[in-house]
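tokens incoming
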């Protein structure tokens, strides 16, 4: 694989986008309870101040995929994004059996189909988090982003437990 030029990297950054950076408060990889990340800034010799941090490139892609899957489809319809999110949240309360996991996979793939920064979903598996199966499943994704050669791997846990707002 050849190295990319500065211009190619700039184009990739623009196509993948920039977003406000989220800091997840729970265990790493759970993508729950996020708050805006901040960064200390100084300008013109003024006192340092906190500012909202931004994120771009591959870290932004990871965040955008997690956000899309953690959002219930239709939740952002009042903001003009009726297709954003996934329907797998409709399965909360269902048993952690193969049929339910297959429906989760279907709904996840439908959600990712609406993401313009994904060139290809290489693999999507939904597996029980434990043996015997309990309420937690692992959504394991391998996707290729637009203009990106290396695939991105992501694991998003999802709880079928009725008391969990996942």
């Amino acid at each position: 694989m050849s190295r990319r030029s500065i211009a190619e990297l700039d184009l990739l950054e623009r196509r993948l986008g920039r977003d406000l950076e989220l800091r997840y408060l729970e265990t790493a990889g759970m993508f729950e309870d996020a708050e805006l990340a901040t960064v200390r800034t100084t300008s013109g010799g003024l006192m340092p101040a906190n500012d909202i941090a931004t994120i771009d490139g591959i870290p932004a892609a990871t965040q955008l995929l997690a956000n899309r899957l953690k959002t219930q489809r239709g939740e952002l319809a009042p903001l003009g994004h009726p297709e954003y999110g996934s329907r797998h949240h409709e399965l909360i309360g269902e048993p952690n059996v193969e049929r339910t996991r297959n429906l989760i996979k279907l709904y996840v793939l439908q959600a990712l189909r609406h993401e313009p920064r994904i060139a290809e979903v290489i693999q999507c598996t939904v597996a029980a988090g434990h043996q015997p199966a309990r309420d937690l499943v692992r959504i394991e994704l391998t996707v290729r982003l637009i203009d990106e050669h290396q695939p991105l791997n992501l694991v998003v846990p999802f709880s079928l437990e009725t008391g969990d707002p996942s």
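note: Strands lie at 18-20, 22-24, 34-36, 38-41, 49-52, 54-56, 118-128, 136-145, 152-159.
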